[in-house]
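For homework, think about our next protein:
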Amino acid sequence: MSTTDIGTFTIRPLDPLKDTELLHSWVTHPKAAYWMMQDAKLPDVEREYMRIAAHEHHHAYLGLHEGRPAFLMEKYDPRYVELTGLYDPEPGDVGMHFLVAPTDRPIHGFTRAVITAVMDELFADPRTRRVVVEPDVSNKAVHALNEAVGFVPEREIDKPEKRALLSFCTRDQFLAARGVAV
């Protein structure tokens, strides 16, 4: 649980059977273009999240704001998922994706509060030493958010589906970005 000045965020495991309709509406929304599922049908989304649920090194979570679904979080082991062979992983590396639900009533600072809640969740595990992300190089908005919570870009990499900006954030960098003495 993460409490901010815009409310309380909690995270629970995603249930691919119960949450698919909701996820489908999020990942096919025009604002989710970087999620690369714009043309996905309901069974495609269900199949993808069933695959993740069955994967030993990839996990999906539903994020709630004040008890209502508000974002999707994925956590993965970059040694086995997404970044295999694209960089030299270190012990304690955890990969992350997040997607904020589309809304008709945006709240100023909401997306930053979401990424902060995601990072709080990841660093709540003492084994997590560094969070790794690989957003599309053209996704300037997420680069700014990543920087705001302490990510430092390392280099561009070529993934099968995109050119990505490989970036890292240690626990100390995250705490420093939040203004917490380290």
Summary: The first helix runs from residue 16 to 27. The longest strand covers residues 68-76. The chain has a mean pLDDT of 94. The chain is about 30% helix and 30% strand.
